[in-house]
TrEMBL record:
HAMAP family noted in UniProt: 23SrRNA_methyltr_G (MF_01859)
Species of provenance: Pseudomonas fontis
Residues covered by the RlmG N-terminal domain: 2-181
Keywords of this entry: Cytoplasm, Methyltransferase, rRNA processing, S-adenosyl-L-methionine, Transferase
SUPFAM superfamilies attached to this UniProt entry: S-adenosyl-L-methionine-dependent methyltransferases
Record's protein name: Ribosomal RNA large subunit methyltransferase G
Length: 374
C-alpha cells in the first residue's frame, strides 16, 4: 500500500476492518488536499485543531506533532483505525484524543477539518455543535471527493458557520472553506422521532441513524417474523441501529437476554434511549463495537441482523459477510442467525457456506428473511 506523504508526515495507514489484498487505501486526495491547505497557513504549535469524521486517522495522526489536535466522529471502526494506525506508525494508541459523536467536544478551536460524511444530518448536527466552540478568526474547512460532495454541504456551512469559499478541484477533490462569524444560536432538529404501529413504539433517532425519518422497508419485512418462544436465550442485535429489532423481540420474549451492537455511536445512543423508553430498567448490554468481534465464542443462542451493504461511500457485501462469520463464531452449536436482505444479494448461498442449514422464513417481492442454523 502507498504511504500518505504530506507536509506534516509520511504515514503507513490501513483501513478497518482489515481484509486481505484490500484494493482501497486508508486515505484519499481529499485528505491530502486538507493537509496541504492547512500547512500553507503555518499554524503555531499552540493552535487547537478539531478533526471531524477522519476515516482512519490520516488527518489527526498527520497533525499530532504540529498542533493540538482532537478527533471526533461517529464510527467505532474509524476510531479503531485511528488507534491501530497510531501503533503502526510507532506512536501510542491514545496519542490523539477521540470524542465519540454521542458526546460533546470542548473548544475553542482555531481550525476545524471536516471530512464530509455520507449522511448530511450528521454534518448538520456537528456544525450546530460548533457554535460557541470556535475561536475568533476560526475557519471550518470541509473536504471531499467531488463526486461525493453535495451542494447542500456548502449550504449547511454557510447557514451555521459563515461565508463559504469553494476551492479549485485538485485530484478530483475539493475544499469548502467557511470563515466563522457570529450567528444566532441554532436549535438542533435532532434527534428525530417516529411512531411504530406494531409493536406500538415511539423511536428516537440521533442524527446519523440509518433511516432516521421512518422504519426502513427491510426491517418492516423482518419484524413480523422475529423468533418467538426464546425462553432465557442470549440474543444479539448485530448492527442494531435504533434498536427496533431487539426491542420488538424483547417485548415478545420477556426472559431473553439482549446485547445490542453497532459501529455508530449515535445508533448505540439511540438504541439505549429507546430500550429504556420501551423496557424501563430491564437489563441490557448496548455498545459500540466492531460487530461481534468482542463477543466470546459460543456465547449466544440467537443473532438478529439487518446487514449493511455499504461503509461510508464504499458499497459491497464485505461487511455483511464479516458479520455472518462473526455470528457463526459467537453462536452455540444449534444456535441461529436470522437476517433480512434484498433478494438480489444472494445471501442464501453465502450463508450456506458457513452454516449447517439455511431456510427461508418469509419473503416479499424485494426481501427475504432467512434463518441459518449453526
Amino acid at each position: 500500500m502507498p504511504l500518505l506523504n504530506t507536509p506534516y508526515a509520511e504515514l503507513d495507514l490501513i483501513r478497518q476492518p482489515e481484509q486481505a489484498n484490500d484494493p482501497l487505501q486508508a486515505f484519499d486526495a481529499a485528505d491530502e488536499y486538507l493537509l496541504a491547505y492547512l500547512a500553507e497557513q503555518q499554524l503555531p504549535a499552540s493552535a487547537r485543531v478539531l478533526v471531524l469524521n477522519d476515516s482512519f486517522g490520516a488527518l489527526a495522526i498527520s497533525l499530532r506533532a504540529h498542533v493540538q489536535v482532537l478527533s471526533s466522529g461517529d464510527s467505532y471502526l474509524a476510531r479503531l483505525g485511528l488507534e491501530k494506525n497510531l501503533g503502526r506508525n510507532d506512536l501510542a494508541f491514545d496519542a490523539v484524543p477521540f470524542v465519540p459523536a454521542s458526546e460533546a467536544f470542548q473548544g475553542p478551536f482555531d481550525r476545524v477539518l471536516v471530512r464530509v460524511p455520507k449522511t448530511l444530518a450528521l454534518l448538520e448536527e456537528q456544525l450546530i455543535r460548533l457554535q460557541g466552540q470556535l475561536a475568533p478568526g476560526a475557519q471550518v474547512i470541509a473536504g471531499a471527493m467531488i463526486k461525493h460532495l453535495p451542494r447542500a454541504a456548502g449550504d449547511l456551512l454557510e447557514k451555521y458557520i459563515g461565508p463559504v469559499q469553494a476551492s479549485l478541484g485538485q485530484k478530483k477533490a475539493r475544499l469548502l472553506i467557511a470563515t466563522a462569524e457570529d450567528k444566532p444560536k441554532a436549535v438542533s432538529p435532532y434527534p428525530t422521532r417516529y411512531l411504530l404501529d406494531q409493536p406500538p413504539l415511539e423511536l428516537l433517532n440521533h442524527a446519523n441513524v440509518f433511516c432516521r425519518e421512518g422504519l426502513d422497508i427491510g426491517t418492516r419485512a423482518f419484524l413480523p417474523h422475529l423468533p418467538r418462544d426464546l425462553g432465557s436465550a442470549r440474543v444479539a442485535d448485530l448492527g442494531c441501529g435504533n434498536g427496533v429489532l431487539a426491542i420488538a423481540s424483547a417485548l415478545q420474549n420477556p426472559q431473553a437476554q439482549y446485547t445490542l451492537v453497532d459501529e455508530s455511536y449515535m445508533a448505540v445512543q439511540s438504541a439505549a434511549e429507546n430500550w429504556r423508553a420501551a423496557l424501563g430498567e430491564r437489563p441490557v448490554t448496548v455498545q459500540a463495537d466492531d460487530g461481534l468481534a468482542g463477543q466470546p465464542a459460543q456465547s449466544l443462542e440467537v443473532v438478529l441482523c439487518n446487514p449493511p451493504f455499504h461503509q461510508q461511500q464504499v458499497v459491497g457485501d464485505f461487511l455483511a459477510w464479516r458479520m455472518f462469520q462473526q455470528a457463526r463464531e459467537a453462536l452455540v452449536v444449534g444456535g441461529a442467525l436470522y437476517i433480512v436482505g434484498n433478494r438480489h444479494l444472494g445471501y442464501h448461498s453465502k450463508l450456506a457456506r458457513l452454516f449447517r442449514g439455511v431456510e427461508q422464513v418469509a419473503a416479499t417481492p424485494k426481501f427475504v428473511v432467512l434463518k441459518a442454523r449453526k
